[in-house]
Amino acid sequence: MIRVGIVGLGYMGRMHYRCWNGLLGAKVTAVCEANPKVLAAAGEPTKGNVGGAADHIDLDSLKVFSDLDALLAAREVDALSITLPTFLHADTTIKALEAGVHVLCEKPMALSVADCDRMVAAADRSGKTLQIGHCIRFWPEYEAARELIRGGTFGRPIAASFRRYSAMPSWSPDSWFADEQRSGGQPLDLHIHDTDYVHHLFGMPASVSSVADVPQSYIATQYRYPGGPAVVAESTWRMAGSFAFEMSFVIVLEGATILYDNNASPAFRVLASDGTSPDLRIPVSDGYAREVEHFSRIISGEPLQPVITPTDARETIRLVLAEKQSAREGRPVTL
């Protein structure tokens, strides 16, 4: 039985709590939360832009800590889900790895490439698993699209566009999302989902060219791949509060078009040029549950190829920071 601790009991902490509790062979045994108001609200419904987070957490069944050092010293856990604000990811992850604990750290990995490098080095020294929670790599429809492309049945990719639209996050107790020094801003928090998927799907581009508003609450990027495909991604936190969250894509292949829109029915479609319909079986799940399951299987000793490595996540940070630089300076940035 894997004993799991969750560090940070906000919206994403509750999401990880739900995912871990859905697994056989794992049990959440401890939580660490420094904010007493967050702990007091553990029995109440939570807010977020995607459903699935636990509406109720029974703290009486868990060991509750307000200090990470105390949690690690108690040796109550084999693995941690770190679901803290981004600026705390690096130091918290390194401390946990050095204590001999496996770590699933929420995305983004960190605010800087230098902090990512410290995390990679700590994982290498410790011999423990570090996985960064890029859930879109595990999202069933995004995973299916990648498999269709890699399978080659419909030829090579010609073009791809990705969209991610949301109102400004309002569920954090101290509005840390709005503080770029703590969150990295919209590009590192929201846009990075599609940036990482572009990286996962097509590799690192030769360069990026981005446009954004002044606080970068909106950003659109062209990723240049010599010889193709043509790839763009757009995201924003500027939607009206009543707007339903959207994540969507259109991928054009030589012999088919793949479409996904989380608000559409059906959400996922493959339109083949010859009129045929591929036999698709999309799992009824989400990327959060699937990334937690993948992590649990790896730390249990299953010989799996990691879907994402710490170095992959580090490169995605480098890519998003290049996008931010491009938008800020009004010029393409070479990777």
Automatic annotation (TrEMBL):
**Top-rank taxon:** Bacteria
Asked if Protease is a keyword of the record, the answer is no
Name-wise, this protein is Glucose--fructose oxidoreductase
Alphabetically ordered keywords of this record: Oxidoreductase
List the GO molecular function terms. glucose-fructose oxidoreductase activity; nucleotide binding
Span of domain GFO/IDH/MocA-like oxidoreductase: 142-256
UniProt domain Gfo/Idh/MocA-like oxidoreductase N-terminal: residue ranges: 2-134
- Provide the E.C. number(s) assigned to this enzyme: 1.1.99.28
Classification via InterPro entries: Gfo/Idh/MocA-like_OxRdtase_N, Gfo/Idh/MocA_oxidrdct_glycsds, GFO_IDH_MocA-like_dom, NAD(P)-bd_dom_sf
Q: Which residues cross the membrane?
A: none
Entry's Pfam families?
Answer: GFO_IDH_MocA (PF01408), GFO_IDH_MocA_C3 (PF22725)
